[in-house]
């Protein structure tokens, strides 16, 4: 049984408009789903039904085994307060309550308002210093972080986010996406509406709505991890060719195109970046040198051992470099007698197995 099960979910307004038209899909626990589609395609309607803010006209909806469409009004309130965390595009903070009070309000339905818990949640989103501020005194990005803290407070099973970065600039978008990524790593299930393909790409799976119909469930051809490594490789190689540690972002068009990944790299401390420049951090250097090492060793193996022609080396090495384990990499390096360069003459970063080799 899946965590979320939708079967022929339909929401009609009047006799002719179907905001959702027989939508069927499953979500596994811990998945991050992006719901995409043009304006008016039913995304918000779907999210509201998932969150118990609205009821379907027809069809089945089960979440964690619960038949959500058939809950009584009181059970629905409870479900919403205890099991779901909402993050909206409009922040919906109460202007005359402080930040910490706004978060505590979400606990109210949970019957125990615990200031310490609210404070902890705000610290998690980096707002520990802003507890007594009012929403009006915060930037948009900070207000959205309060909303994330508020969504987390009851340890919800399901996080529903409707265009959570729609009103934010790139820096704050990065922060919020970083927080969502962290929540997923902790095991939360996330369903996020976005019209931005770059933001949607961060999810495990993308669901597209079109006139209320589920049009397409596409898996991403390139896994985020792989893209991440490829971008790190690019940065490393540019750095090899340059005398500066700091690179100009405009030298890296692929990074700007993949700005969601750029955001995650920056959030995770692999790179430090402002609007125009980018530097690999120590942690980023370590990961980049490992992936470059795997890549160039793979090229050596394909070239020296399998006799693959030079023009095919790079593409073939790319196919396997992100999957080689540390053990296999050491074995390849040892097998090849710890080569110093790839077949194109670029240096291969040294590994642990090279320590005693002259
Ligand atoms: P999206 O979030 O993808 O932009 P919505 O889910 O908000 O789309 O809306 C889907 C369709 O349902 C739209 O045509 C919208 O006008 C209609 N709709 C949404 N809510 C209502 C409502 N309460 N009454 C009538 N029509 C509505
Ligand atoms: Mg909407």
Describe the overall structure.
The chain has two domains: 4-219, P-loop containing nucleotide triphosphate hydrolases (Rossmann fold), CATH 3.40.50.300; 222-358, Arc Repressor Mutant, subunit A (Orthogonal Bundle). It is globular. The protein has 13 helices and 13 strands. The longest helix has 24 residues, at 282-305. The chain starts with a strand and ends in a 23-residue tail after the last helix. It is of the alpha/beta class and 358 residues long. A hairpin with a 2-residue loop joins strand 9 (205-210) and strand 10 (213-219). Helix 8 (224-240) packs across helix 11 (282-305). The strands form three sheets. It has a six-stranded mixed beta sheet, sandwiched between helices. A four-stranded antiparallel beta sheet has the order 2-1-4-5, with helices on one face. The protein binds adenosine-5'-diphosphate and magnesium ion. Residues 43-44 line the site of magnesium ion.
Q: Provide the succession of SSEs.
A: EEEHEEHEHHHEHEHEEHEHHEEHHH
How many E-type strands?
A: 13
CATH topology of the largest domain: Rossmann fold
What's the end-to-end separation, in Å? 58 Å
| Structural shape | globular
Helix segment tally: 13
Largest sheet: spatial strand order? 6-7-8-3-9-10
How large a portion of the residues is in β-strands, by DSSP E? 15-25%
List the uncertain runs. none
Domain tally: 2
Q: Would you state the CATH class of the largest domain? A: Alpha Beta
Averaged pLDDT: 88
Give the second-level CATH assignment, the architecture of the largest domain.
Answer: 3-Layer(aba) Sandwich
SSE class = alpha/beta
Sheet having the most strands: 6 strands, mixed
